[in-house]
Every structure is written in C-alpha cells, then in structure tokens.
Amino acid sequence: MGKSRDTYTAKEYFIWSNKSEILYPWERQYVDWDFLAHEKKRIDDISKWYKTFQKVDYKDNNVDISLYAVPVELSSSWKAAIVENNMNYMGLATLPNSPQHLLMCLIPYDKKQPQEYGPIKITSSKRIRIYNKHYKEYEYALVIEDWEPLKSDFIYIDVPYEKQIINNILKETLIDDKKITSSLQAPIISAPYLNGALGGISLSSFSLNSPLGKELVKSISLLVPPEYRAFRPPEKAYMGKKFQYSKGIKFHLAERPIIDDKIFSGIVPSRYDFLDNELFKRVNFQGEYSIFSTFSPGQGYVTQLMKEFLTKYPNTDITLPLSLDNLLDSKINIAKLKKEINEDIWMQVVFTRQFQPGLDKKSSKHFNSLSDLLYQDYDTLLSEIYKNSTEREHVVKSMHHKSKYNLKRLAQSLARVDENNSISENNFEKARGIIVDNFTDLVNHKDVHKFADKIKTRKENERYSVIQTEIINSPSSTAMEIFNEIEYTGLFKDIYDLQSLLDWLIKNGHITENEEKRYQWSPYHVY
Length: 527
What we know:
By secondary structure, the chain is α/β, with parallel strands linked by helices. The protein has helices at about 10-15, 30-35, 35-55, 75-85, 165-175, 180-190, 210-220, 235-240, 270-285, 300-310, 330-340, 345-350, 360-380, 390-415, 425-445, 445-455, 460-475, 480-485, 495-505, and strands at about 65-70, 70-75, 85-95, 105-110, 120-130, 135-150, 200-205, 240-245, 250-255, 260-265, 290-295, 320, 510-515, 520.
C-alpha cells in the first residue's frame, strides 16, 4: 500500500470502535462486543481448527485452512533452532491486527514466502516440535508443505448480511435523487476488469475545493472495505504492535490491508492534472480502479474553457456538473452517513463484485444500439452551441469515443447491482440516462451557458477550432496523430498543411511543443 497522508482518525477508520472505548484492534478483548461479524466467524472457525492442531498426532495433508501471514521477531537461539530444521519462518494469525490464536510457522526454503499481512490458504501441513537448546524449551509450529494466496477480500465472503442497502443509505443520508444516488453508488460497486479492458468506475464532481466536498469524498471512501482503499490507515494502526508470544518470540501485528486487484481512490485535487494523474494510474492498473473526485475548472480563454468542459466530461465515467455542496442540505447529513457505515455495506460491495457481467452477442447488440443513440444525444445537445456542423461533429466524435466505453462500464456496474452476470438492455438504458442527464445539466450550467453564449457570437476559424478541440482532448499528441484524427474533416490537404498551421500556433503562443515534438494547448494564448 502506498504511503499517504494520515487523514483518518482511528475512530473514523475502525467502525467497530463506534460501540467501544478501544481505539486500536489489538486492544480488543471481548469477541461478542469488540469484533465485527466477519471477524467473529473467523475466530470461531480457527478456534475449532486450532483445537485439532493441538492434538499430539496432528498431521493432515487434506485440511484446508486460511490464516494471515505476519512477521515475527526471533532471538538468535530460536533462529538457530529453526536453521537446524533447514526451514524459513514466519507467524500465522487468525486476524492480522489481533492476537487471536497465534502460531509459529515453518516453510521449506524451496517454497515461496507469503506476503506479510496477506491471507493464505494452507492446503498441506503438519505439526512439528522445535527444540531450543539454549532455552531448553520447545515450541509447536505448523510446517506448510503447500499453500496458495487468497484474495484480500475473502474474509467478507459467505457471511450473512443485509442486502441492497448502499443506495438506501445514500438516499436517506445524502439526497433523495435516484440519478445522483445511482451515480454515487457506481464507483463503490465498480465495474469488472475483463479481457484487459479498463475496470472500475470513475466519478468526478464539477466543483471547487470546499470543506464539505472534502468531507463527502472522505466519507464515501469509507463505504468500501479497508482492502480496497487507496489511503493508508492511521499511523499508529499501520505501525502496529509487537506481542510477546513466548520467550524470544514476538509477533508483529498491524493494520496493513493488502490491495490486490481492486482500488477505490477518493481524491480532492486542487488542479485537474492531479485527477489526470489518477486516471493515468487507472489505465495502467490490471484490475478494478474506481475514483471518486472533485473536478475544478482550469484557466484559459472562453473557447478553450468551453472545450475543456466538454472534452473532459467523458474523461470520467460519471461527471456530476454541480458542486458536491449542492447535493447536501447540511453537514448533519454527512455525520449521519458516517454513523450508518457498517460491515453489511462492505459485504454487499464484496458480494456484488463477484459478478462479472461482460459483453456477449446479445448485450453487444444493445451496446452498439445505445452507443449510436448516445452519439445522437451529444449532437442534439450541442447543436445550439456549435452551429457549424464540421466543428460540432469533431467535438461530438471526440466525446463519444470515450463515452461509449463509459456506457459499457456503467451498464456493467448496474448489472452488478441487479446481481447478474449478464447485462440487460435496461442496464444500458439506465447507463445512457445517467450520462445524458448529467451532460444536459452541464450544457445548462450557468457558467457553461455563459461561455456558450460568447462562443455563439464569436466567428472562429474552422481549422483553428478543430485543432484546438483535438489537442485539448488528446494532449501530448504528435502532428501525425493529430492529422489521423482530423483528416476526415477535409479541412487539411495533407500533413504538410497541418504542420504549417501547428508552427504558426507555436509562434503565436497558442500551443507548446516539447522535446518529443508533442503538442499541448497553452492556457494563456493570445486570441
């Protein structure tokens, strides 16, 4: 897990602490009071297995048991005793942050060492006794003959919970608006990473930095289980505590959830390029990478800002064209949301993410049909802003290329909400509705409307406008990449014609060119 600033208190981070005076997980004592349901189940399951392990003749190569690998500190004499057995060592724990049924473990050198604080399934093992000649004492240990890693969210599976509660909680605590609650829920439920296609759901809100917006992003991030969160636990919990297991043996327990192939990143960037960086990480992540973020307009001239609003709209799967502050009545709502966060929500998130709805022949037909309609939606909504059909076509085309994949991912997320492994036509219809409704609100936004009115009265050169749209939409493109995207407009005879205009734009401060001959639109050009 990457290092990040500690912005969550232990009381906020550990939801079991709402009913307890205890702050840190290793301090918990009463199973029926201090532990969550999925933790209680683990303690109960491992307790039964542990009794079997303690039998003198324990050796069962067919028993599957899941435990967490945790680091241990050994005295020199214990290390020597283990070396005599020609083994490596580690600790095993029922929970990585609590001293429930700790156990020494030995692994042959030719076996891969498990990741610290990660869960493993032991498929073949036996008990041995290690004798320490220096202490004249012995310890029982589990020799792992075969094992395999487990997904970090395995702990939430097969535990009873209240279903279909996320949307209801968002509705009851934040806002009674189906479109907005469905939008807020989508990054939490996410979309599958299938066949190398982008996974997860990204959401941005068209707003400035605000304390209320920051608090909402922070609270929404707590709706996913710790194993999905991009942020680090509170520092003291992360550093953990060392427990004296026996003379010369200490177990290091800590709150260090392992991120596998699912990430939820809640960010409040001061500049859009920070969100760009997060989106870049998402593209390069082999799994589900969801983002919940604010969206702050950049700086520049009217035509540039307008095009940035439009071309950046599909950069995230969902773009809410209103301030997060406007979603809420008061800070009391967020306080209520925090109180409602429980493990049932986490278990629903994990359960729904087991569904992997992809495109088959039938759903592909729905996808293509609704994607075509989405193109027409954009064209209609922009017809009053861009009277010139060539210019409008290029804006619509640049937006639609990204939006059609957003449509697919949103439909997949909605199919998960329905607990289906197939995407229905209704899922695509709802996904299109979310995209079109939000874009309609964006076009009608007072600031965008103001910019649009100025664009209508300005006669802009077609060639200039199309290049501006393309470079804003695809920054750091080469001249050839730009030409390939705009050749269909017929506005440029060839690459030579385009390069001539690009050089003029550089000379007059409209665009910049880096050492690799890639172009960026300058926010301070003179026009």
